[in-house]
Request: fold
Amino acid sequence: MGIFPKLYYTIYTKKTPAEVYAILKGETAVWGIAHYPLGEGAFVGEVGASEFKIEPKTSWFRHHFSMAVIEGSIEEEAGETVVSMKVRVPHQMHVLFPVTLCMVAWFLISSSAPLIVAVIAGGMMCLFWLITWIQTREWFYFDAKGAKRKLEVLFGETVCTD
Reply:
């Protein structure tokens, strides 16, 4: 298990793979300039005939940055369409821990302040990292579960396994 969570979902629906593709394509906007979504829909990203990589659109106060990236595939199996998904944190968040460690190390090594000031500042940076990590996990679960609910509604009669 890593620092950041991953979730795996499987949705079974009676719709055909072509219908599932059309629904996803219709509800997915594309990325524009400066990572701004172009178009309408509940998601932003890329949808292919058998696989997709999407992010749920977020509210305006988070500046269109979702904490959940959904990578999945669309397959037909025994008369049903199976949509398998892996939900993960965006790669941008994976640099959070190493960058914080480098900041703490740099401050401790290069500080001309007394050792106690350097230790307090390093502790504050670690506390900043911990708070950001907790906030990232909470937003991740919020976005992931919301995206799963949106997909279940879009696909109609579904059975979802966690």
